[in-house]
Amino acid sequence: MTTRTEPTLTAARPGRLALLAAGWLGLWGVLALIATITGAGYPLGANNPGGSGTTLLRLIPVGLGPPLFAVLLLAAAGAAFVMSRPTAGTASGWRVPLLSLGWAVAFVLAVVVPDAWVLVLLGYAPILLLGAPFGWPDVNYADVFSWALFVKFAALVGGLLLGAAVLAWQRRTAGACARCGRAGDGDAAWTTPAAAARWGRWAAYVAAAVPACYALTRFAWAAGVPFGISAEMLAELQDTGAIWAGAGLAAFAMVGAILTLGLVQRWGERFPRWMVGLAGRRVPVRLAVVPAAVVAVAVTAASLGYLSSPNFWALTGALSMGTAPIVFFPAWGVALGAAAYAYHLRRRGACGRCGRG
Known about the structure:
Keywords: Membrane, Transmembrane, Transmembrane helix. The protein is mostly helical.
């Protein structure tokens, strides 16, 4: 006979996650406070010339940025610390304010701060790493891997940590299992494996179509076809060599599209035969879900940066087949996140903590 353990507010792991988030946010909050006092070290907004055009932080005066982030980060660190306590806020009026603060700061850190450059680096990283021994591409790596980029990745990590901690605490204080979210009344109809398989398939198709269309336009440019751009712009891309960097990015976008389809294919659940040593074994759920979730957040951040940037619209002039895939980046981010969640719902099985499922 299987004994189910009801979810309690004394779960240690969610508390440790909240403490980790509190420590990470507190560290960066102190650094923001130091930047406020010294007037140095703030690399965002107008202080990041290479990326200031694709971030909403350009709207915040440089002098206001450090104290604003110091307040947000330290407040969020305090909230995360409160969430690490076993019985915090369950019977008080602090639950809604803490959840609101936590989710708001998590969104700012994971989506607003990273802007498009985090996604760009994720796409170009294989090219940069593989080409470095051969001196290609001809870039200054110190300019690429800058303090500003490090801060943006740190913000992304902090946002994801805080989001996970807030989600666990939200579940715990609602009487549900902090790990799986299930409560005593069972799964909601739309979260059953059968339902997730239906809507998850459509989400995966959308999430694969957008990067595939993006890749096709860049492959066309590499082939000398000015698809969606002027002949003059194509010639400029060819002269600068940017067209080959775009082709490399397109190749990895196409790989990403294929892997996205794996979220709804059999080979996405069991390794295919040609993978020696892994053939036939079950694909770990987190191996598929975690990268997809990170890319979904990065794509959403990039879409917010691009589509809110006057420079983007000034450069492209108008909507065309060359820019249309980027316009659909928000749909890509949401659909990829939904497809990853559907994959998780289909394969999660019984919860190892509460026994439900």
